[in-house]
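Structure tokens
________________
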Amino acid sequence: MNGLKIAVLVKQVPDMDTVKFDRERGVVDRKSAGTEVNPFDLNALEEAVKISECLGDEVTAISMGPPNAVKAVRECMARGASRGVLVSDAKFGGSDTRATSMILAAAVRKLGGFDLILCGEKTVDGDTGQVGPEVAENLGIPYACFVSRVAAADRDSIRVESELWDGTYEKEILFPALLTVTKEISEPRLPSFQEKMKARKAAVTTLTFHDLAPFLEETAVGFQGSPTKVKKIEIPPELKRHGRIFRDDAVPQATDELVGILRQRRILA
């Protein structure tokens, strides 16, 4: 019996501690910082590999990005993915979540479809949590978001726990299906030196717009296919703590001032 076809959608993101923003264009200046695999996607990859180890299946890592995003794909292959696919074309530049989800859905169709697709609940550079569900909607398959635990899985369905608001919901979904996962679902494994070296030499499939053209309109990608635009970027000022020192002879003044602040903030009636 053939095993499940499992895919993990991953994104190469900038180091958010050092990255800069192009305020005029309303985009992240991705050249201003180093890159890494989106941390939430590493949790999705780890869970995919764990499922594949139990059911004897293979995992395909799919990433959309510029040519250098192949590093993210190879990182996933070093961490257990058996196949890597890079979706890359200049026409895809400037795609918002809607256009990105359509491109990724087209890539899934081009690759022949998957029984199970996993991705992180969000990316640290966009923080929207929209791409995963939108990919599922474009593919017309069911999905579960904010999955924190896989309770059981077989070749027909998967049972998961989703954390929504203050509740935990148990769901069983028939394949094909898509899951977005939280960081609580797993602890990503660290690749060995040997696995890293093997991944550096592994073949990575590249899909361009031409490859996806049977499943994708050119007007649906890039800036022209993106209905959302960033008009303005504002970085909030860093909040700093302010302290005051009152000497022994100023204790009554300090008490009055503290009580006044608490009343102003309605902590005291």
Q: What stands out?
A: The CA atoms of residues 60 and 83 lie 5 Å apart.
